[in-house]
Design goal:
This protein is of the alpha/beta class. About 50% of the residues lie in helices and about 10% in strands. It has 22 helices and eleven strands. Strands 3-5-4-6-7 form a five-stranded mixed beta sheet. A four-stranded parallel beta sheet has the order 9-8-10-11, with helices on both faces. Strand 10, helix 21 and strand 11 form a beta-alpha-beta unit.
Amino acid sequence: MNHDFDLSAVEEEIANCMRCGNCQATCPYYQETGFESSVARGKIALAKSVLQGKIKYTPTLAERFECLTCYACNATCPCGIQIDKIFLAARAVMVRNGGSPAFKKLMAAALKNQGLLDLGLKTAALAKGLLFQPHPSGGLSPRFPLGLDLRRVVPSLSPKTFRDGMRESVTVPGAKSKVAFFTGCLVNYVYPSTGRAVVEILTKSGVSVLIPWKQHCCAAPLALNGVMDVAEQMARSQIDLFSGLDVDAVVVACGTCGESFKKKYVELLDGAPGYAGKARELAAKTCDIADFAWNVAPFNRQLLKELAMRVTYHEPCHLGRGLGVTKEPLEIIRTIPGLDFVPLREPERCCGNAGSFSFTHYDISYNILKHKLADISGTGADAVVTGCSACRMQLEDGFAQEGLGKRVFHTAELLAMSLK
């Protein structure tokens, strides 16, 4: 196990906190609860006590380290503390000390076994009539808890996954480059239209695409929840697969997946013989689709057709603050003729999804979402563009429940619509 995920490894970060409270102003979790233990400096104080052996693991303590990992506190910390690393180390300690709830154990079992995950989700897609009921918005609501709040509205699982519907290699005659496409779970199982849009953008830009069938979950849901041993195994597996490919880049369509390839694998495998170097090489080759389409293999602007609609843009936390991909999606949107783009007041504000957080803390998650919904409504936009499928699910849930009648598109889908 990589000891970078022990609290002792972040002792200096913990000591650097001067308890100024700047994190209070930006933490969406704290703004909903008002509890000191919900904000960064409160969690850092708890981490310090755990490090010093003053307090031991309890389920209540583990709950105090819940966090959206939106990086808003990192961005505003005047001391430059990497606050998320403290939280992740604390979570890893809790898990190693027996603090992994049943939900996280189930998640680890499902995500580390791609065959099991594939079977489970395909079965759920076929049995959706038994498990879910139609919602007036066109989505589905669970008939039974199923780990989901009964109020929740979810998109229908695709009966045919994206990877099932694609050739493993899409070759462009005279291609100027070749990339591997890491689809991620949500694009593969829930939003195959996003995957098809990515392939269309790439091929129309003269890029051949390889879609490795043996790819699996990026392991972010496990790493972010402190299940580091399984996350490390999955990181090694991905590196074994993608490092052996003769490609110029690895393209992703999700900020969280991109972070795994560009940052988390490097951290997880730091010092690991045979893997540390490969992790850094893979990180250097990984690129979000918006960044790739704008900076690396620019699409032909002469092919763009007019799209008559008013749109706004929600910036995913892991894509913006995490990967630094902030201007490229906006440049793409502004380039498409006919679009009326109205920016949000707070485009970078977290939508509240945060992966498993929206399952385990649905009420808080939805209250955070309400701020985003109000901001979107104020623009008068017909649709919201974003670069994260998890954010998309969260926004679609809110639109359905509030009866707002708005659509959500991945940036790649919007661009592909104009390229047709």
